[in-house]
Structures are given as structure tokens and as C-alpha cells.
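About this split. The held-out portion is used to measure sequence recovery: a designer receives only the C-alpha cells and must propose an amino acid at every position. Recovery is the fraction of positions where the proposal matches the reference. Here is one held-out target exactly as it appears in the evaluation file.
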């Protein structure tokens, strides 16, 4: 069991050395894009929900 755990940790180290991490500026740009798109999607869902709720209230 301990041998398997040690092998797993060693495998993780080997794989982590292969990872190409993004530059700081690229990471910041990607984060900004995700936040903006999430906010826009949230607004879209809010307005769609509001409109649909009002239509349902008018009909019933």
C-alpha cells in the first residue's frame, strides 16, 4: 500500500514537470474573459427569467 502511494506521488511529480503553465498576463486576460462572460450570461438569464415570469403571470 505504501509502495503504491510512493509510486503515485512520484508519477505526479513527473507529470507536473511536463505541465506548461501560462504566463501571468495570459492568466489575467483569461480570468477577465471568464468573469465578463459569466456576468453577461448571468444578466441574460436574469432578464429571460424576469420576462418569462411576467408572461406566465399575465397568462394565469
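Reference sequence for scoring:
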Amino acid at each position: 500500500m505504501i509502495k503504491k502511494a510512493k509510486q503515485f506521488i512520484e508519477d505526479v511529480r513527473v507529470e507536473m514537470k511536463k505541465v506548461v503553465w501560462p504566463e501571468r498576463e495570459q492568466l489575467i486576460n483569461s480570468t477577465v474573459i471568464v468573469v465578463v462572460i459569466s456576468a453577461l450570461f448571468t444578466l441574460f438569464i436574469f432578464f429571460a427569467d424576469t420576462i418569462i415570469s411576467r408572461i406566465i403571470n399575465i397568462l394565469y
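Annotator remark: Helices lie at 2-18, 24-59.
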